[in-house]
């Protein structure tokens, strides 16, 4: 029975293997009602597998999961009425028009576009000028908006977005996240995955994932706050040599035009880079990517 | 029901927008039905004959004239020796050699018998076999003519065999082939196109999007089957019209019976397509698997070779194919005018095929991986 008080999505000890490969290992986490939750991790971390299990497309080998209080195995019919899913790959009918796709999916969910228009109005208005165009002929950003409309047309309780911004230009990505913020205000629970660390800060809570396991799960601010060391950005005329020199003593990796170094004091660092010219050393606040790399190194 | 109606609407929209698929569904069968029966003709005409006449007598001339006037043979070379005639065979200018020995006439008159040697190029087995048998018939005919002349009192002894060919009195090959080819065309369109259509949804990923909706399994499957069932019916009707207008084949039997059988057959073949699609992940895979089975179905169906002439294992394969029964029934109803009682057993078998193939496909089709 659904319990409105409990969390929107709950995973308990979920495991899924494909032959020899373990995609998801004994995973447990939960997402609160109305939360914008991010699964952050590189390709192959197991993000899509989690989505497919939660949207009842895939059966887990072990563990229990519920969405909006319904069991993903037993009550899959209920879940299919209540969730919106946008797969990583654009999977609407390319040979149907924008309008036809929308009407088609509305009908499959037993509703009409008119009934739930308020839900998608803001997004749909942006693609409405192209409503008679075939979906296959839309640009990447437009396709994304149409897919989001189709996933929202039945007023889902929980929205699952699998890498919605992969392969989308920077402007469309920004717009997309703004749309998600507005949807959140309407009370929809949103679970979104992304390989881009910079998008993590836009979520309320995130789970950093690697190889089917969660490295850390918290608000972006708390994860950054938990970074234990001082972090320095270093730059010199010969970056390649600089990386090699510092690596001997401390954790060091390229980050934009700088190298990020942690695990040593500023004085020690200054000592190691003595032989270099045009040296700049500055203290920086750790970002999600720094946290992720640190967790990864610790994990290994 | 509303969902199913929308699924059908979507399917038809997609079919009619697919500029590559439409000709495959509607024009290709027409063209094939116009071309294939004309080409697939086992009547052998224009057999090239190399003649070696060592006798140069009145009888040998008469014999050659008789062969030449039969309409089946063209005497392309008159050579003096067998090796020379053999060269004609080697260069593919002749198909059969006929050698008339010296003293042919003399022997024929004196001894009442004269040898003639035939050699056929058996690389084209049909041409060699049929050509030799035509020649044998002509020779036998010639033989009896001579006997009549030489020994008139003995001419009318022996059994006189007369045969009459029912349902296809002129042994017109097309009348036999067109109904069969029509079955094959409907089979190809339904078996192939339906299988590819579902796999395309898998390949493009749209099936994923459909699977997270509350659409029921039977709705989705019916949404796929009904359009291709209708297309199969339309294709068959077009084919039947072509058979009538172009080949003058007017079904002797009951059309309702024919369409009744067709409707069951289409369900069986669509189930076959659906089954393939549940096992394939890409259109290429589905294409090759469907191709493999359909080639076997066609070759073993009795379209070209009568099932009765097959070895036991061949008969077993033929009996395991739904195509075999329909070709049989098609010929029975169209050419013979068979009634319900004659086709009730194949109809029952076809129903069993439809149930097994569809049941298997539905069990194997899962919305959850």
From TrEMBL, chain A:
UniProt-listed CDD domains: ABC_DR_subfamily_A
Keyword rRNA-binding attached: no
Domain ABC transporter: 9-236
Any matching Pfam family: ABC_tran
SMART domains referenced in this protein's UniProt entry, alphabetically: AAA
One term of GO molecular function: ATP hydrolysis activity
ATP-binding found in the keyword field: yes
Keywords for this protein: ATP-binding, Nucleotide-binding
Protein name: ATP-binding cassette domain-containing protein
Lineage: Bacteria, Pseudomonadati, Bacteroidota, Chitinophagia, Chitinophagales
TrEMBL record, chain B:
GO molecular function, one term: ABC-type transporter activity
Gene3D superfamilies, alphabetized: abc type-2 transporter like domain (3.40.1710.10)
Keyword Membrane in record: yes
Compartments in which it is found: Cell membrane
Keywords: Cell membrane, Membrane, Transmembrane, Transmembrane helix, Transport
Domain ABC transmembrane type-2: 135-368
Transmembrane segments annotated in the record for this chain: 21-40, 175-199, 226-250, 256-276, 288-307, 345-363
Topology relative to the membrane: Multi-pass membrane protein
GO cellular component, one term: plasma membrane
Matching InterPro entries: ABC-2_transporter_component, ABC2_TM, ABC2_TM_bact-type
Pfam family, one: ABC2_membrane_3
Protein family: Belongs to the ABC-2 integral membrane protein family.
PANTHER family, alphabetized: MEMBRANE COMPONENT OF ABC TRANSPORTER YHHJ-RELATED, MULTIDRUG ABC TRANSPORTER PERMEASE YBHS-RELATED
The protein, known as: ABC transporter permease
Protein's organism: Chitinophaga oryziterrae
């Amino acid at each position: 029975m659904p319990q409105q008080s409990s969390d929107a999505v709950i995973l308990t000890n979920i495991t899924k293997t494909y032959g020899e490969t373990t995609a998801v290992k004994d995973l447990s986490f939960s997402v609160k009602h109305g939360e914008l939750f991010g699964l952050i991790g590189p390709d192959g971390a197991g993000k899509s597998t989690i989505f497919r299990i939660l949207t009842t497309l895939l059966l887990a080998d072990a563990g229990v999961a519920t969405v909006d209080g319904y069991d993903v195995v037993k009550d899959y019919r209920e879940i299919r009425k209540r969730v919106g899913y946008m797969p990583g790959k654009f999977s609407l009918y390319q040979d149907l028009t924008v309008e036809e796709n929308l009407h088609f999916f509305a009908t499959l969910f037993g509703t009409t576009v008119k009934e739930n228009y308020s839900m998608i109005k803001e997004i749909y208005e942006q693609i409405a000028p192209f409503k008679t165009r075939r979906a296959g002929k839309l640009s990447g950003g437009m396709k994304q908006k149409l897919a989001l409309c189709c996933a929202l047309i039945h007023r889902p309780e929980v929205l699952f977005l699998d890498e919605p911004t992969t392969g989308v230009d920077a402007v469309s990505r920004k717009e997309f996240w703004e749309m998600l913020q507005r949807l959140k205000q309407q009370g929809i629970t949103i679970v979104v995955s992304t390989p881009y660390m910079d998008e993590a800060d836009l979520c309320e809570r995130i789970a950093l994932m690697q190889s089917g396991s969660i490295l850390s799960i918290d608000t972006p601010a708390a994860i950054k706050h938990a970074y234990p060391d001082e972090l320095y950005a270093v730059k010199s005329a010969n970056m390649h040599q600089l990386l090699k020199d510092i690596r001997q003593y401390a954790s060091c990796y390229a980050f934009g035009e700088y190298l990020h170094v942690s695990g040593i004091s500023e004085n020690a660092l200054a000592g190691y880079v003595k032989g270099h010219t045009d040296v700049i050393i500055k203290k920086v606040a750790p970002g999600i990517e720094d946290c992720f790399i640190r967790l990864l190194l610790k994990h290994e | 029901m509303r969902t199913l109606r929308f699924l059908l609407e979507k399917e038809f929209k997609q079919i009619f927008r697919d500029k590559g698929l439409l000709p495959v569904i509607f024009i290709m069968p027409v063209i094939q039905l116009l071309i294939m029966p004309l080409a697939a003709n086992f009547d052998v005409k224009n057999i090239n004959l190399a003649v070696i006449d060592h006798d140069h007598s009145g009888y040998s001339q008469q014999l050659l004239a008789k062969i030449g006037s039969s309409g089946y043979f063209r005497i392309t070379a008159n050579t003096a020796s067998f090796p020379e005639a053999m060269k004609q065979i080697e260069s593919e200018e002749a198909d059969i050699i006929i050698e008339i020995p010296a003293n042919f006439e003399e022997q024929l008159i004196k001894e009442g018998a004269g040898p003639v040697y035939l050699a056929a190029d058996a690389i084209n087995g049909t041409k060699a076999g049929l050509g030799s048998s035509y020649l044998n018939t002509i020779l036998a005919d010639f033989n009896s003519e001579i006997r009549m002349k030489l020994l008139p009192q003995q001419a009318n002894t022996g059994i006189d065999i007369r045969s009459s060919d029912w349902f296809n009195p002129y042994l017109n090959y097309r009348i036999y082939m067109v109904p069969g080819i029509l079955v094959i065309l409907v089979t190809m369109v339904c078996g192939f196109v339906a299988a590819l259509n579902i796999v395309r949804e898998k390949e493009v990923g749209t099936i994923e999007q459909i699977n997270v909706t509350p659409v029921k399994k039977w709705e989705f499957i019916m949404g796929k089957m009904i359009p291709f069932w209708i297309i199969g019916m339309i294709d068959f009707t077009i084919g039947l019209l072509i058979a009538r207008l172009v080949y003058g084949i007017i079904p002797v039997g009951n059309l309702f019976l024919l369409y009744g059988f067709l409707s069951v057959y289409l369900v069986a073949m669509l189930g076959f397509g659906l089954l393939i699609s549940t096992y394939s992940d890409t259109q290429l895979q589905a294409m090759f698997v469907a191709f493999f089975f359909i080639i076997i179905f066609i070759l073993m169906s009795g379209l070209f070779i009568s099932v009765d002439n097959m070895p036991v294992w061949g008969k077993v394969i033929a009996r395991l194919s739904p195509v075999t029964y329909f070709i049989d029934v098609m010929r029975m109803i169209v050419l013979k005018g068979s009634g319900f009682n004659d086709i009730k057993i194949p109809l029952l078998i076809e129903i069993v095929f439809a149930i097994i193939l569809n049941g298997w496909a539905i069990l194997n089709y899962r919305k959850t991986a």
